[in-house]
């Protein structure tokens, strides 16, 4: 069975990919401290105020990207305005 890949998945794969653990460390740039990995998973699967963090699954790993984190925070900022 062939699955359709969304544009966001392709973006994540062509950008600066990060594992979940690396993404939690990267979040330090926005929050001043690293967020827990479970928070990154929550952003991916549940989202915040209707916005989900873009991701891709590579084998049994889930990856996101620096650019996806930036888009996620930008969309949240726009939603709150």
Tell me the structural class: alpha+beta
Provide mean pLDDT, rounded. Answer: 87
Low-confidence stretches: none
The main β sheet shows up as: 3 strands, antiparallel
The spatial strand order of the largest sheet comes to 1-3-2
What is the H/E string?
HEHHHEEH
Strand content is: 5-15%
Give the key terms.
single chain; 81 residues; alpha+beta; 5 helices; 14% strand
Topology of helices and strands:
Layout: H1 7-14, E1 17-19, H2 20-26, H3 28-31, H4 37-45, E2 56-58, E3 61-65, H5 66-80
Antiparallel strand pairs: 1-3, 2-3
Helix pairs in contact: 2-4
Word description of this protein:
- With 81 residues, the protein is of the alpha+beta class.
- It has one domain.
- Helices cover 53% and strands 14% of the residues.
- It is built from five helices and three strands, in the order αβαααββα.
- The chain has helices at residues 7-14, 20-26, 28-31, 37-45, 66-80; strands spanning 17-19, 56-58, 61-65.
- Strands 1-3-2 form a three-stranded antiparallel beta sheet.
- A hairpin with a 2-residue loop joins strand 2 (56-58) and strand 3.
- Helix 2 (20-26) packs across helix 4.
- The N and C termini lie far apart (42 Å).
């Amino acid at each position: 069975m062939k699955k359709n890949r969304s544009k966001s998945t392709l973006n994540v794969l062509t950008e600066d990919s990060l594992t979940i653990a690396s993404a939690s460390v990267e979040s330090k740039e926005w929050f001043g401290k690293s967020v827990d990995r479970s928070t990154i998973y929550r952003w991916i699967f549940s989202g915040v105020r209707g916005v989900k963090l873009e991701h891709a699954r590579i084998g049994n790993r889930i990856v996101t990207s620096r650019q996806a984190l930036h888009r996620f925070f930008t969309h949240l900022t726009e939603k709150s305005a």
